[in-house]
Amino acid sequence: MPPPRPASDTRRDLIVVAAIAAIFGVPAGIAGGLRWVEAAGNDTGAGGEPEWVTPDALRAMTQDGTLVKAHVALEAGRGANPTALRYRLREINQILNVSVLAHRRDEITGAAGLARLSGDMLRRVNRYLEAEGIAPLRSIAITELVMTRA
User: Both 40 and 57 in a single domain?
Assistant: First the structure.
């Protein structure tokens, strides 16, 4: 039977084991914590980053003959498939044109007018998407609007 080890050797072994555990454990703990924070931030319940789809420039005419050129951005809603939206951009553009045609120039002028037009566009596009079995949009942002008398 080997002689018992002195207490100083056991203490030194414990210190070496603790140092090795710290060398590997601290980075592993940090990496795990960062993954957890990233996963919590990407949770769909937390909102996440919005997914925007931008159709080509819209060219339409209002009821009273005003030419409108607009750029819009479509914000995909929860569970939406942006690819499905991109496949239907032609139809969506036509719906956006109809939305402009449903208003007069004075109805879409100013901040209240833009909000009115955007809301109308959103309602019409969402009706179409729901009929196609696609998740509705969260919002439509009008990023540029230029009106010219014909």
Answer: no
> Could you give the CA distance from residue 94 to residue 59 in angstroms, rounded to a whole number?
10
Range of the domain at 39: 7-45
User: Are 67 and 126 in the same domain?
Assistant: yes
Distance of CA 28 to the CA centre of its chain: 31
Buried b (16+ CB within 10 A) or exposed e, 10-29: eeeeeeeeeeeeeeeeeeee
**Are 22 and 59 contained in the same domain?**
no
CA 74 – CA 141 distance, rounded (Å): 7
pLDDT (tens digit, 9 = 90+) per residue, 112-140?
999 999 999 999 999 999 999 999 999 99
Where is pLDDT greater, at 86 or 50?
Answer: 86
Do 25 and 88 belong to one domain?
no
What is the torsion angle, in degrees rounded to the nearest 10, for the CA atoms of residue 88, residue 93, residue 123 and residue 76? 50
pTM confidence score:
0.67
Structure confidence at residue 97 (pLDDT): 95
For residues 137 and 67, state if they share a domain: yes
Distance CA 55, CA 50 (A): 16
Q: What DSSP element (H or E) covers 44?
A: none
